[in-house]
Amino acid sequence: MRSVPRRVYDFLHAGAVAHAKWDYEVSMSIVKEKKRLWVLLLMLMPILIVSVAGATDMLGSKTAYAPAFYSTNIFLISIAIGLCAGLITGCIGAGGGFIITPALMAAGVKGILAVGTDLFHIFAKAIMGTTVHKKLGNVSTKLAVAFLVGSAGGTFIGGYLNKTLYDYDPNLSEAFISLVYAVLLGFLGFYALIDFIKASRAGGGGDAHGGSSGLTSLAVKVQSVKVPPMIGFDEDFEEGGRKISGVIVAMGGVVVGFMAAIMGVGGGFITFPMFVYVFGVSSMTTVGTDILQIIFTAGLAAITQYAIYGYVFYTLAMGMLLGSLIGIQVGALTTKVVKGIHIRGFYAVSILAGFINRAATIPKKLVDLEVISLSQGLVKGIETVGNVIFWVVVAVFAAWVIGKFLANVGKLRGEDEEHVTASLAKEEA
């Protein structure tokens, strides 16, 4: 039998893959529809006008619905961060969303502002790019309502915790967010590295993205708990359907909402594996509910927990959105000319780079909080090394993917033309 940590890794990795798939779909939906591109351009116009005018001072102040400050450089950095996250999401199929908040913090953005901005970026992408028609057809309304009630509560708890820590001491907030990311990314990264080493020794490429589904023994136990109200679901996929306690579903929502508000990742990387592996919900129903969850949870957390307190940096959010739309397309196309084993390796390295970056900042924060006593030179050196490693890894990965893309652009264009021709022929038939 697999160990508990191994199961947890499989759980989180499956969620990361599902969230990356959603990210790709909404990004492509925006790119392929001119109206949505015009909406994005209109949202970017004020930022671009100010950039051309050369204004680098305050656009607003640290109040509700106003960015903390603005400069052309930080906007360009946000595009680069979005581009790299998009490349990772598109090429690797997981993990891109995990580096955004750490990257913003590494660029000098306060942790609480990075979390709020990332949430708003996810919310903006969701409402612009989500195609809900077919995928929402299988949503269980009762299941969704119970989960969203819980996730709403979770966002308030997580947001309150972040704001309380920041109001008490900004360094404590920074240390807390960095610690959460260090634990998560360290866990995912080391397991991914072990998988990569095993696959390399076996000499096979394997499936770079992995993932499994089905009614697990845990799901059977969870569905056997008869705490009212009981909610029926999956009547279209299972004779007589299945039932689960609404209280358990709501508790799951609390966890997702809490993690979203703490980390700024929208909660999508937890929702999918939770529904499939823990609740025993079919993947068809899960996909639709996940779409609703991301829009609701990210929007509620971004607006009610961060934006109204001035913790959303809108110029950064729009820059990341623009960069990710480009990156995710290039990354997805590159997978056609890159071996699966290489993708596995880069997934492990990119996640570990994020872990090193956040872990390297913790000693300095603990010194600032007077929890430990080390020289400022030492802790600053550790932090600098963590930053250098992170940016070098991300830059090398981005250069490698873009290089692969440019070197094979002719081949990729030919495949796309063949795909379009085949699609048109199929439609005519």
Key terms:
single chain, 429 residues, mainly alpha
Provide a short characterization of the protein structure.
The protein is mainly α. It is about 75% helix and about 0% strand.
Description:
This protein is an all-alpha fold and 429 residues long. It has one domain. It is 75% helix and 2% strand. The chain has a two-stranded antiparallel ribbon with strand order 1-2. It is globular and about 65 Å long. The model is unreliable at 50-68, 206-213 and 419-429 (pLDDT under 50).
Summarize the amount of helix as a percent range: over 70%
Can you tell me the overall shape?
globular
Sheet bearing the most strands, described? 2 strands, antiparallel
Alpha plus pi helix count:
15
In spatial order, strands of the major sheet run 1-2
The structure class reads mainly alpha
Strand portion, in percent?
A: under 5%
Summed up, the domain count is 1
Give the end-to-end Cα distance, rounded to a whole number of Å: 50 Å
